């Protein structure tokens, strides 16, 4: 029988419920449990794929090709779970399912209502992620208690306890205990109000995670406990920490593991947190340092590149290096020239992206990296632009992607009309008539690497699988001309039709991949390409000092 831990948030948003869920997952895994984590999001979009990164941060892609909330990235980074379609439900998806059933006549003439039909559907959604493969299903409810939107989710999790045994369900509430400067003290009132609000809708939290910038003294914990009807050990100081990977350790120090164990009637060994201690130590006390410039479009809102930022830190962990990130708006590069932004950096990265804005600035950044022999990592769009740049400035083509110039003379990147889908085993037809210009290649696809290349050296094996999210592909018509001038194709789909990785031979490290490796990197298992890229950046710098 699976156990369930529900995580809600109160007082204000952005307290880090996703990290809290992920860190609890890490802690439980460290005690030998198998964990899955699910996010229930109260917005009406059926999935976050259509949300602007400005609004909602990164779209995280799962192996099974689902476009999900960025919190699923945290879950994967902190635990061994691999997210799938069942790990992210939105209000839109829940209603969509209910309305589909209603249209099919499944409700046999019932009046279809929020309670019980929507709440039952939510309960089924929660159960769909739990299976015999997992001991605990952690469920994060998006939004903040008090939002109109989250009410059906909260009602569903309230009812949940009545459908499974009491000791199988735990409610964790994340709140804020702010330090008020003028009063010189921590304040518990917002937490009390937030818990009152939860209790009004019938949920008595079992554990409070109180975000705070300093430890909450015992007498204050006691005060919160009495007011909120809790054991004192259920009030946890969720302290601000230097790196998010320290959160499981900080929860352990507060005794959260023991309390969860007790509440869920489990009998577990002490958590084995050695690797997390090492990860944190590497991040806090690195031997080397390097600076990476990211030339992108959404640079002011770093959550749009959350996994990327983390993967670069992971690359640093494996190289014992601090990784300083400089976010450069590629339109600024267009306006002011590359030198101003890139002359001092140890590595340049162009991440994934859509649309024409800032494209020429990114191409200038690629050129600078190629010519100045600065380690370059191009991800998805960054790979496509590396091909375009090489076509233009090395092969003398008028190359472009049909995404930016549908009539370009040399469409080195284009919409491939037909391609073999290795996951479904079917030929896919891509039509350009849909609103966004064709369907995306989404999720995990296999790539076969070519021996003797940077890619092969990084992975140390021939067959890999990586996650995709794009429409445009390398145009095979240009393979010969590009490779004859020195572009190396180092990774292909198994049928050799899709170019997955390109690189340069006479360059310390210049690699572009059509997929998104950042989605699979974890602090305790950094992604090979990020390890290699940061390795190249650090090596360059070290040579400079010698
Ligand atoms: N816009 C490009 C495409 O659709 C790249 C997408 C991406 O970088 N994720 O192919």
First-residue to last-residue Cα separation: 60 Å
User: In percent terms, what proportion of residues is strand?
Assistant: 15-25%
Largest sheet: 9 strands, mixed
Level-2 CATH architecture of the largest domain:
3-Layer(aba) Sandwich
Structural class: alpha/beta
Radius of gyration over C-alpha positions, nearest whole angstrom? 25 Å
Mean pLDDT score: 93
CATH superfamily of the largest domain, please?
P-loop containing nucleotide triphosphate hydrolases
Q: Write down how many β-strands occur, each being a DSSP E stretch of 2 or more residues.
A: 25
Strand arrangement within the widest β-sheet reads 13-12-14-15-25-24-23-20-21
Number of domains: 2
Question: What ligands does this structure carry?
Answer: glutamine
